[in-house]
Amino acid sequence: MGALHAAIDRYAAGLAPAVAATVAAGRDQVPALADRLAAHGIELDGGPEEILAALDRLPVLAKDDVLARQQADPPFGGMLSATADVRRVFQSPGPLYEPQLAGPDPWRWEPSLRAAGFGAEDLVLNCFGYHLSPAGAMFEEAALALGARVLPGGIGNQDLQAQAIADLGVTAYTGLPSYLKAIHDRFVELGLPPARWRLTKALVTAEPLPESLRDLLREWVPTVLMAYGTAEAGLIGFETEPGAGLVPAAGLHVSVCDLDTGAPLVEGEGQVVVTLLRPDYPLVRFGTGDLSAWRLGPDGDLRLAGVLGRVGAAVKVRGMFLHPRQAAAVLTGVPDIEGWRFVIDRVDHRDELSCEVVVAPGAASDSVLATVADRIRSGLRFACSVAAVGGLPADASPIEDRRDWN
Questions:
Q1: Phi-psi bin for 357: left (phi > 0), alpha (psi -120 to 50), beta?
Q2: Segment 84-98, tens digit of pLDDT
Q3: Phi, then psi, of 321 in degrees rounded to 5
Q4: pLDDT tens profile 37-50
Q5: Crossing angle for the helix pair 48-55 and 3-29, nearest 10 degrees?
Q6: Could you tell me where the DSSP H helices lie in 40-116?
Q7: Does a cis peptide bond (omega within 30 degrees of 0) precede residue 75?
Q8: How big is the chain by its Cα radius of gyration, in Å?
Q9: 38: which residues sit within 8 A by CB, 6+ positions away?
């Protein structure tokens, strides 16, 4: 047996009792899970490792499946225990609704902050969104669990954020890596004193971190580490040192699964599939839609290789998903357009999103483009440049991703 195979077996065996207990308790509390297990003949007989092996036969639960369940049985599709203590409800594109359950650091991001050196003495500038989506709350809860203070920066207002860094002595950052670069650039452009830039650590996520960008960021933030998670599952993996792969997080079981069969893989790329170890919200065999692979870390323990791409047509732009189906729903019915597509590019380590629109002959182009921009802003929550083009290729896809992460 190879070293990687042995590491995966050790990881699975260590989590098998918790997975078995969670799924058994969840079946008694959550109707959708009970129905799903029964529909596929999963009896939960035998010991923990036998139960884990039986669950591997359960079809992967896709985000579209969760969305369909929620639409049929709002708000949570029967996937949440009736006794679950829900503190907040968030909305992600879809719309998909995610509960924040009671308790400190419910999405379990605290270990990733600790790995990056965050502590009680830090003031954390949190530059994830606080509007509808859960990312801002996720990292605020984790920082507060450490005893740190939080400056809720969100996205935008870079002048104010740069000034706050200088005035308040901000020492740590959570957000997109590209946004950290943008804030530092703005700090310099405003002529703020270099000695008042005191950021020493950053935990970044939600978009790739090329080594070229990490090297640039580390010129003025010595520690820059990457983590990975989702709105539904919280933290899934995190770096403990640059480029060494992602340590699987506690609180859930992680598999890398074949895209066709859903069977767990030892080698090669597959979809990241997780089981959340909370009986009141037991996401079982949930497909994140992200591609990864297993590898060994420097210590010989199991690591995820990072996010290597997406399953299907959705792409991530500035940390948020853009799906062709959702784009079509927003732009369908706009008068006087004969075609459209989104184009994503990467300029100076930042995503640039534009929409090319074919305006019908004789229509007022400026008015049509303004309507499209408003629809995109309100329906998809993206700031996006919109331009008229004479035509599109016959084989044009709804989203053209031109980014080069090298």
A1: beta
A2: 999 999 998 878 999
A3: -80, 140
A4: 999 999 998 999 99
A5: 90
A6: 48-55, 63-72, 110-115
A7: yes
A8: 22
A9: none
